[in-house]
Amino acid sequence: MAPTQIQRARDGEVTAAMERVAEREHRDPEFIREQVASGQAVIPNNHAHDALDPMIIGREFATKVNANIGNSEETSDLQGELEKLHAAVHYGADTVMDLSTGANLDEIRETNVDHSPVPVGTVPIYEAIKHVDDPADLTHDLLLDVIEKQAQQGVDYMTVHAGVLMEHLPLTDGRKTGIVSRGGSILAQWIEENGAQNPLYTHFEDICGIFAEHDVTFSLGDGLRPGSLADASDEAQFAELDTLGELTRTAWDHGVQVMVEGPGHVPMDQVANNVERQQAVCDGAPFYVLGPLVTDVAPGYDHITSAIGAAEAGRAGAAMLCYVTPKEHLGLPGREDVRDGLAAYRIAAHAADVAAGLPGARDWDDALSEARYEFDWRRQFDLALDPERAQAYHDQTLPGDNYKEARFCSMCGVEFCSMRIDQDARDADGKMSAIDDETDLDASPAAETNLPPVGTHDTSSVPDEIEIDGVTFTPEGGHADD
Ligand code: SF4
């Protein structure tokens, strides 16, 4: 049995995958090895996934973005799924999760793995449930068979909701939105109807054995994540998190890589606390968060509500962000939804990296700003997060080639282009030469109008009354004749 990345890292080996990751992240290969060995980062890399270009997920590295693809009972086909995979990779997904629940599951999964240069994740209980008439009929053997088959097919990481325990279920009573994770709700139903403990928990070490054989990475699912702001950070969520911490250590003992999934719907002021708590409870295992949505009121725009939470989570130390599309809560996303969701999340991830001071993260911003100030439109498009959209929007109003060097665009127009005006006001060396060390700025007529606003600083020179259009006002805000 070939060892896993974490086993090889612990043995002091820098693998080819670690070398490649070091190159992609501009980091020292030995640092990559240390991070993988300690479980602080994972390199999802199934032995059978030949098309993979290895990548790393960990808080010390660029924040990654996952895109969910896959069909449902109602819609999509193999060709449509391949188009979604292509769109996801094209628009910058670092990993994809095949969440198919419709027809041809094996064919779609194998095709995705064969064609995907990024790690492929799955939620095996989605397939297992299709083999039985009632969720209560799921068996340990069926779950393990499905997990093993998907591992053999080359899946790099799997969401396993092993942390949903019998003891946790009463803690969800009284929630506004109950259990919203698909896997979590299926397992809760199984536990209720069988009166037995979660089979993914009782057979967790068997799953570890399968994962160790194929080097599948755990994505420990948060089946009790909050589905609304009202349910965020409650007892059920944190009880499950404690179990996920325990399972993280069990998986590490078996030489299996682990990341841990997180919420969901969380008010913005609780996002950082959630990340810090997971990092403490799970000994620094990478945190993979879904959003979180920071408000519940914007169906149709949940790529935005969640990208706000994702940026905050990334800044606080989350390692990977699971994207949300505008279709969240409303329907299965199509190609354009994948594009919009990925754009929102790549912005969130990059904003987090800049704020966290990741080495080199801001170089991209600086390069684009330089191109913008130089009116180098083609370079600005090339550097844009979504080059096709940037150029399309520009060319809607100024399509001609001559406008690719123009010192304005249609936003402010030629006369009011502030960057052009600014450049025309400067000398060739970029300085405002009329102003030098000898200039007495206090003597400038503008200094008068730049006095501090009334009420904020020294008010000694403020008159007691001011008359405007025949009405006299006092500094306290009332009329003088009140
Ligand atoms: S016109 Fe306005 S938006 Fe366009 S380049 Fe000039 S300053 Fe920027």
Number of helices: 20
Structural shape? globular
> What proportion of the residues is helical, as a percent range?
40-55%
**Backbone structural class:** alpha/beta
Bound molecules: iron/sulfur cluster
Instruction: Give me the side-by-side strand order of the main sheet.
Output: 3-4-5-6-7-8-9-10
Q: How far is it from the N-terminal to the C-terminal residue, by CA?
A: 89 Å
pLDDT below 50 for ≥5 consecutive residues: which ranges?
Answer: 477-482
Oligomer: single chain
The largest sheet is: 8 strands, parallel, barrel
Question: β content, as a range?
Answer: 5-15%
Topology:
Layout: H1 5-10, H2 16-25, H3 29-37, E1 41-42, E2 57-58, E3 64-69, H4 78-90, E4 95-98, H5 105-115, E5 120-122, H6 124-128, H7 140-152, E6 157-160, H8 182-194, H9 199-202, H10 204-214, E7 217-220, H11 235-253, E8 258-262, H12 268-281, E9 287-290, H13 302-316, E10 320-322, H14 335-356, H15 363-373, H16 377-383, H17 387-397, H18 413-416, H19 418-425, H20 445-449, E11 466-468, E12 471-473
Helix pairs in contact: 2-3, 4-5, 4-14, 7-10, 12-13, 13-14, 15-16, 16-17
The structure holds iron/sulfur cluster (SF4).
